[in-house]
Amino acid sequence: MKRIVTIVLSLFFVASGFVFAQSVDMAEAEALLRKADENTSFEGVDFSANYAMVQDRPGQGKSLIEATMYRRDSMAAFTIVITGPENDKGKGYVQFDNGLWFYDPHDKQFTFTSAKNKFQNTNANNSDFSPQHFCRDYKIEKATRVKLGSFACVLFELKAVSKNVDYPSLKLWVTEDDGLLRKKEDYSLSGQLLRTTAIPSYQQVSNRFVPNSMLIVDNLRGKKLDGKMQYEKTQVTVTNVSFAKRSDLIYTKKYLELMGQQ
To answer: Which of 13, 105, 161, 248 has the most CB within a 10 Å radius?
Structure first.
């Protein structure tokens, strides 16, 4: 784990270094961005995996959240069941019919929530667990070949064309050879950096790519310690990936109610 974090941090802080003389042809850039979209989507199959999320708040220590994720992208549906810590066990989220609900087994109530909200007070958004739609929701302002560490990437600068997005402006680093997202910066309308995500490595399962780990840094929330600004961050590790068919029951409120009784 220490080695993974070191690699992630090196990617996160490495400047985009060497830039080739010419920008990327727009048709070529659009094709690569479509491939990046496709790599985040698992159409035609069910996806499931275990997520371990270590939240690091400077000066407050670390906390661990564990969850099992189920996705059926053909229905734009997903279910997340929290499996730890013990006091949060049984809580969960279910998305279907363009709605997202949070379930708390303690009061046995569902609360309507938003994809833009933070997941369990971490630095991840609820929308981070869904397929990304960069081509649909954003316009390419600029695309340039760069180096990100050892990766040959295209750096995309995107502006939102949809109001239904988390952030109005993005920068994406996408590897040219496989169309995998390696780094993402989220910006406000005024151009302030809000959040940074680094994805240094992927696992290939059934010819599909899933991140091994991600580091999400909140560039607004932090604390100065020993004279140095340290930001909140969440380390996400993904294991036990499967694309096996799942029961339709999993993508319902009833399933969360059943899990909350265990």
So the answer is: 105
For residues 113 and 129, the answer to whether their CB atoms sit within 8 Å is no
CA of residue 256 relative to chain centroid, distance: 22
User: 118-143 pLDDT, tens per residue?
Assistant: 999 899 999 999 999 999 999 999 99
Rg of the chain on CA atoms, in Å: 19
Tokens of 204: 């290939």
* DSSP run (H or E) holding 246: none
* Alpha-carbon separation of residue 118 from 98, 138, 155 (angstroms): 18, 22, 26
Name the strand (E) or helix (H) holding 35. Answer: helix 26-39
Residue 52, exposed/middle/buried by CB under 10 A (0-12, 13-18, 19+)? middle
Residues 6+ apart with CB under 8 A from 156: 29, 33, 134, 140, 142, 143, 170, 171, 172, 173, 174
Structure tokens at 44: 């035609």
Three-point CA angle 203, 206, 207, nearest 5°: 75
Q: Which amino acid is at 71?
A: R
CB 193 within 8 A of CB 187: yes
Phi then psi for 135, rounded to 5 degrees?
Answer: -65, -40
Distances (CA, A) of 56 to 18, 62, 69: 32, 5, 22
The per-residue pLDDT for range 174-189, each reduced to its tens digit, is 999 999 999 999 999 9
pTM of the model: 0.90
Q: Which residues contact 175 (CB under 8 A, 6 or more apart)?
A: 151, 152, 153, 182
Short-list 54, 130, 103, CA closest to 260:
103
